[in-house]
Design goal:
The complex is a heterotrimer. By secondary structure, chain A is mainly α. Chain A has eleven helices and four strands, in the order H-E-E-E-E-H-H-H-H-H-H-H-H-H-H. In chain A, the strands form two sheets. A two-stranded antiparallel sheet of chain A has the order 1-2. A two-stranded antiparallel ribbon of chain A has the order 3-4. The longest helix of chain A has 36 residues. By secondary structure, chain B is mainly alpha-helical. Chain B is 75% helix and 0% strand. The longest helix of chain B is centred in the N-terminal third of the chain and has 36 residues. Chain B is globular, with a radius of gyration of 24 Å. Chain C is of the alpha+beta class. Chain C has two domains: 221 residues, Rossmann fold; 112 residues, OB fold (Dihydrolipoamide Acetyltransferase, E2P). Helix content of chain C is 26%, strand content 35%. Chain C has nine helices and 19 strands. In chain C, the strands form four sheets. A six-stranded mixed beta sheet of chain C has the order 6-7-8-3-9-10, sandwiched between helices. In chain C, strands 13-12-11-14-19 form a five-stranded antiparallel beta sheet. In chain C, a hairpin with a 2-residue loop joins strand 9 and strand 10. Classes of the chains: A mainly alpha, B mainly alpha, C alpha+beta. Chains in contact: A-B, A-C, B-C.
């Protein structure tokens, strides 16, 4: 009887504890949505009316201080930045991942461990030097240059991801391609890349997501006149009068493209080919 | 023999070249540059002018003294000492509790706590800044207002606590995920056997689950230790280091010195300390965990 | 067409000698099997011939050219892998024409060449499928077509039949042999199955522990095995072995054990005289070279296993066990005592220490 009660209580206690910890966060997330779509709040959190008034930036310019831009410019910049960075990450990691999976060379293990270390060292502490470096090679204040610098942060882990995908392809497929006349590069390009499409998608999404979310690189290395979504939201947050509904709506728009990309790429690329034959 | 060299080196160079050059350009060159700039008084004009150990003397209070440095060190220690245990213990608590629940409920809670990781930093910062805004427009003050309670100046009264929680819950999202998948891989028979032996929930957690999580706990602790020592972006977004240096940690101070005060030389010397701390930590970690293990585990590393 | 010669070929992986001092000549148009148990170095040899491994020592020659450093793509060889290694993302047609595409053969020729090999291998109606939709046998035909389409000078087959079911294996065995003879391409194949090697190959190279044991026609390996290992590896049920001593009495050589004793025929005795260095030898007799019901050696029936085509009888002579192939429907009771005789011209004798044949 008592054991039963205790067991029951243990179960309920788990729910209570998690519920209590989750409550403030749930409040934050739900209010965020309500705030974006709501008008004239009741009790501070419950909207009396729903509407798209907060999304007016979709057709009007966005102003802060003495400056203004449009959400489309910011979105365009962000897409350009994130795609450039993701492409760099994908191409570089797919190249290196193949070599690390298939070619024996001296220093290979060292290089792999080094990647783990580099992944552990946050790039943000090297920002001053990167600022100077980009200035020196004339890439400062330019989206492609900053995108490349940002890409370098995702390369260490991306290399490991790519290597993992290449490791999954049987050696016989590579040998077969070489017998058929392929150079190493042709093996990579004609046979392996089509076989690791899901891997390409994963690495690309990985690179895209981090670049899309990036704030500190963009904020530090691009001039205030080139706004990406992250720096735009931050500038609005830093003004004297903050319209939280407007900001919530803007944040929502900011978060949609990665989701779309994920759904789209999942459909397009995640059809995994099956290796024929037994005993591969 | 010539043929051997060209047939292997040329493809190798084309495969490894891009990654090697980017890593060289954006990791090694910056580390060296940071160390070099730290010995200059480089300012807005980006001129090289070496001034020896002056910056470091200032940093460590030899002769000249940076008036903020003690405050910064205290802040950093409090911040790391606060955020790290909250992350690991919170991650453990959430994963253990959610894994013992009904599947759907557990998944729901894990999703709620994983959200910080999938939303952009700026939005996470916005959520916290808005929730803890000191006027009646802030989320929690608005809720208090609805119940007739006075506003609380959250960010002025509890700045460090809020900054710690905002960062710790980011850490928790990752730790929880890693711990949960580790718990999921514990054979169900282990916990059943313990239950049959009459162990209480607490004893099962203490003697079955936590020992099985030894490696994940170690890696997560090491990972977040490094991450918190270096972190400053979220603090910058939520409090900007304020009010009056109350949440200014080491990395943020370096950033401010360089990019708000345009004292790149001094900022670099502040960052150099972090670079050195990172290297020492990495060496210590390799000593503690062993290179082979890190390489072996690499594939499932986060 | 090409002659292949391996000259003192060695391939080491660290301390492991996968292939050790292998010398082998393969003639134009010959069909040669590399036979041996797993780990004997046969696949390593094949991959070295293909150019995936660089010899540690020795040479691989194509006709008279040393090709040690030639990458696989420049050797003009075709290869079929054990797993077939078809490209899963390409249709059968694209798989077959892939070598042409890489060789930059003009596109207009692809169709005719592909149709030609497809007709040869009876896969013309599969051209639009992807490998995942094919059976094992079909995949193998596609893999063969892909290796033949570029008209290779040398064809390499790695365990070509091991992924097929038993029935298909027997069909493909014959078909592969016929195909090789029709095309006349020098072909090397690797197998661990002595029946495959015996049935298909013109010559067999038997390897063990990285070393070549014997090379020769299937009949040579069967009738005159060079070593104890070859004698035991080839033939099912395997050859019977007995440790015996040689005795010379009045100019005649006798084989003796504690259970039986018989004189050697003159032909064999002459060879043994020349070769033997010790009295301690191993006698080998194939199961079909023992006749039950006549002779001076006496044994006891231990078990009888009817196989349909013949009957396998296990006999005991003292502590020694012998397997004997008797005619079908051979009736004998367990425990019965019988007389038996060895076909004297077909027995084998090996040096006990060196395990080499005394009859060569």
């Amino acid at each position: 009887m008592w054991a039963r009660a205790r067991q029951w209580w243990n179960k309920v206690a788990s729910y209570l504890v998690l519920g209590a910890v989750a409550a403030p966060f749930l409040t934050m997330y739900v209010s965020f949505f309500l705030r974006a779509f709501g008008k004239r709040m009741y009790l501070g959190v419950v909207p009396k009316e729903f509407g798209f008034a907060n999304f007016q930036f979709l057709w009007r310019p966005i102003a802060w201080g003495l400056e203004q831009t449009t959400v489309w410019t910011a979105l365009g910049n962000t897409v350009f930045f994130a795609v450039t960075s993701a492409l760099a990450v994908t191409i570089i990691c797919m190249l290196a991942g193949y070599a690390l999976s298939r070619i024996e060379f001296r220093g290979k293990n060292f290089f792999l461990v080094l990647q783990l270390f580099l992944h552990a060292v946050p790039g943000q502490i090297l920002l001053i030097a990167i600022f100077f470096l980009l200035f020196y090679i004339k890439l400062l204040h330019k989206i492609p240059g900053v995108a490349l610098a940002r890409a370098s942060l995702e390369i260490p882990l991306g290399i490991w991801m790519a290597k993992g995908f290449f490791d999954g392809i049987p050696w016989d497929v590579e040998r077969s391609a070489m017998i058929d006349g392929c150079t190493r590069f042709q093996v990579w390009y004609r046979v392996f890349l089509p076989l690791v499409k899901p891997g390409i998608a994963a690495v690309f999404i990985w690179g895209f997501l981090f670049a899309w979310h990036d704030f500190i690189y963009v904020y530090t290395l691009l001039p205030g006149t080139i706004k990406l979504m992250s720096t735009l939201i931050q500038s609005l947050l830093a003004t004297e009068v903050i319209d939280y509904g407007y900001l919530a709506a803007l944040s929502l728009i900011y978060m949609i493209p990665p989701l779309l990309l994920f759904v789209f790429l999942q459909r397009a690329l995640l059809r995994v080919p099956v290796f024929g034959g037994k005993g591969v | 023999m010539r043929r051997t060299i060209t047939s292997k080196v040329v493809p190798l160079a084309s495969f490894m070249g891009p990654s090697l050059s980017l890593i060289l350009l954006f990791y090694f060159v910056p580390v060296v540059l940071t160390l070099l700039i730290a010995f200059t008084d480089m300012g807005r004009t980006l001129q090289w002018h070496f001034i020896g150990l002056y910056n470091f003397a200032r940093l460590f209070g030899v002769g000249i003294r940076d008036p903020f440095i003690l405050k910064i060190i205290t802040n950093t220690l409090i911040y790391v000492a606060g955020a790290l245990p909250v992350t690991i213990l919170g991650g453990l608590l959430l994963s253990i509790l959610s894994m013992r629940m009904h599947r759907g409920a557990g998944l729901f809670f894990r999703t709620v706590f994983f959200i910080p990781r999938v939303i952009p930093p700026v939005v996470w910062g916005f959520l916290w800044a808005w929730s803890f805004e000191g006027t009646r427009y802030g989320l929690f003050n608005a809720i208090r207002g609805a119940w007739g309670l006075p506003v609380v100046y959250w960010l002025i009264r509890y700045p460090m606590l809020i900054v710690i929680l905002a960062n710790a819950f980011l850490g928790i999202s990752l730790a929880m995920l890693v711990f949960s998948s580790a718990i999921a891989s514990i054979p169900r028979d282990f916990t059943r056997a313990a239950e049959v032996d009459g162990a209480s929930e607490w004893q099962i957690a203490r003697y079955v689950i936590v020992p099985a999580l030894k490696w994940p706990i170690l890696t997560m602790t090491a990972w977040h230790l490094m991450s918190f020592i270096n972190s400053y972006v979220y603090i910058m977004l939520i409090t900007g280091g304020g009010p009056y240096y109350a949440t200014e940690v080491w990395g943020l101070y370096g950033y401010h010195v360089a990019f708000s005060q345009y004292r790149y030389g001094y900022g670099s010397s502040v960052m150099t300390v972090l670079v050195v701390v990172n290297m020492l930590l990495l060496v210590a970690l390799v000593k503690a965990f062993g290179m082979r293990r890190m390489l072996g585990r690499g594939k499932i590393e986060v | 067409m090409m002659r292949i010669s391996l000259h003192n070929l060695s391939k080491y992986f660290g301390d492991v000698k996968a292939v050790d001092e292998l010398t082998l000549q393969i003639q134009e148009g010959e069909f040669v099997a590399l036979l041996g148990p797993s780990g004997c170095g046969k696949t390593t040899t094949l991959l070295t011939i293909a150019g995936f491994y660089r010899p540690t020592k020795g040479e691989v020659r194509f006709s008279d050219r040393v090709v040690n450093d030639l990458p696989p793509r420049e050797r003009n060889i075709g290869m079929v892998f054990q797993s077939y290694a078809l490209y899963p993302h390409m249709r059968v047609f694209d798989n077959i024409t892939f070598p042409l595409k890489i060789k930059k053969v003009p596109k207009k020729h692809w169709g005719t060449k592909a149709t030609e090999v497809a007709k040869l291998l009876e896969i013309a109606d599969l051209m639009d499928r992807v490998p995942g939709q094919l059976s094992g046998g079909q995949q193998q035909r596609v893999a063969l077509a892909r290796s033949l389409v570029k008209e290779p000078d040398l064809l390499l087959l790695d365990e070509p039949l091991s992924n097929l079911d038993a029935k298909l294996r027997i069909t493909m065995r014959a078909e592969l042999k016929r195909l090789q003879k029709d095309l006349g391409i020098t072909t090397i194949f690797v197998t661990h199955d002595q029946v495959e090697a015996m049935t298909m190959a013109d010559r067999i190279a038997l390897l063990e522990g990285g070393r070549l044991q014997q090379v020769g026609s299937p009949e040579e390996l069967y009738d005159l095995p060079a070593t104890l290992f070859v004698a035991g590896f080839i033939g099912t049920p395997p050859m019977n072995f007995v440790e015996v001593s040689l005795e010379e009495v009045e100019g005649r050589l006798f084989v003796t054990t504690e259970h039986f004793r018989f004189p050697l025929s003159n032909g064999i005795a002459q060879k043994v005289h020349r070769m033997a260095t010790s009295r301690e030898v191993v006698l080998g007799v194939r199961p079909e070279d023992i006749t039950i019901g006549q002779g001076k050696i006496e044994g006891e029936v231990y078990v009888v296993e009817p196989l349909g085509r013949d009957t396998l009888v296990t006999l005991r002579i003292g502590a020694l066990g012998f397997k004997v192939l008797a005619p079908p429907r051979f009736r004998v009771a367990i425990g019965e005592r019988v007389q038996l005789a060895f076909s004297m011209e077909r027995i084998q004798l090996f040096d006990k220490a060196t395990e080499r044949s005394l009859l060569l």
